[in-house]
Structures are given as C-alpha cells and as structure tokens.
Amino acid sequence: MDEKEALKQEIKKLNAQATQLKMDLHDLAEELPVGWERIPEVAEKTFKAYQQLTVARRRLAAADG
Length: 65
Fold this sequence. Notes:
83% of the residues lie in helices and 0% in strands. It has 65 residues and is mainly alpha-helical. Helix 1 (3-30) packs antiparallel against helix 2 (39-64). The longest helix has 28 residues, at 3-30.
C-alpha cells in the first residue's frame, strides 16, 4: 500500500471516529441536564478527533501536490 492509500485509510478511520464522537456529543446535549458532567470529556475527545482528521486531510492534500 502506498502512502496516499494509507492516508486515505487513516482518514476513513478518523472520520468514522469523529462522526461517532459528534453523535455522542449530540446525544449528551439532548439528554441535558442529565450527564452534564461529561460535557468537557466528550467535547475534548471530539475536538481532538476533528483536529487529527484535519491534519490527515492536509497531509493527503499535500501528497496530491
């Protein structure tokens, strides 16, 4: 597998993780005030997932030249 294909696979995995965390955050918001204590934890995980996804997408764009 070449570098571009590996990046595409990584992006696919990161996108799935980020999407799941986004839904977790959404579900948490819908259940408020129950579970409000988990907001910082879930938000931080979601932030990091989208940050990693953005970096991976930029690496792929740079590889495409």
